[in-house]
Amino acid sequence: MLEELPSVFLVGPMGAGKTTIGRLLAKYLGREFVDSDWYVELQTGADIPWIFAKEGEAGFRERETRAIDELTQHKQIVLATGGGAVMSAENREFLHQRGIVIYLNAPVDVQMSRTAKDKSRPLLQQPNPRKILHDLYRVRDPLYRQVAHIIMPTGHTYPRHMVHQLLQQLASFSTSPTVIPDLKLSEDEL
Ligand SMILES: Nc1ncnc2c1ncn2[C@@H]1O[C@H](COP(=O)(O)OP(=O)(O)OP(=O)(O)O)[C@@H](O)[C@H]1O
Ligand SMILES: O=C(O)C1=C[C@@H](O)[C@@H](O)[C@H](O)C1
Ligand SMILES: [Mg+2]
To answer: Per CATH, which fold does 8-181 belong to?
Structure first.
């Protein structure tokens, strides 16, 4: 089922749930899951706050583009991208041309509540993270929309339900008829 589907790439702002939903979606599709943020960290041998501190955002973006070019060439993976990946026209081209792009669209309030306690996002380590999220959303929302094949709002929907809705939408990209059965995931994945 959905075997012939190309790679699936998730885009969207910090806290939209790209990593969370991507991991579950990959599990259901029986595919490898990769997160471009983790991949950049692995390739660098350092975490994102360290890369921003030593190389600036520009250094991180160069590494991110190399990672996205490499990872989008894999034929059947699920890839969660960093929140700022769509800022690069090159990345947008790689994503849109090489797979099915899903935009997880979360309102700023939701992004805020999901990122508040986590210190791993350097752009939000400022006195007013809400304003930053708001400003980033204004600039990036049109770019997420431009690159996306599917747009999925993620407000107060359980990850499991989101994955089910996504599978139904992905089925329309499949060339063979597809039935989406109920998802059988454990309680901690709901
Ligand atoms: N649909 C959801 N319902 C409730 N909580 C969620 C949902 N999706 C994600 N979360 C929670 O929100 C937090 C952020 O999610 P996640 O790390 O997946 O976001 P992200 O889009 O990958 O962010 P980033 O761009 O910074 O990597 C996590 O603690 C996760 O458990
Ligand atoms: O929105 C952004 O620009 C970022 C999001 C994260 O996923 C990381 O890629 C990094 O913290 C930058
Ligand atoms: Mg993530």
So the answer is: Rossmann fold (3.40.50)
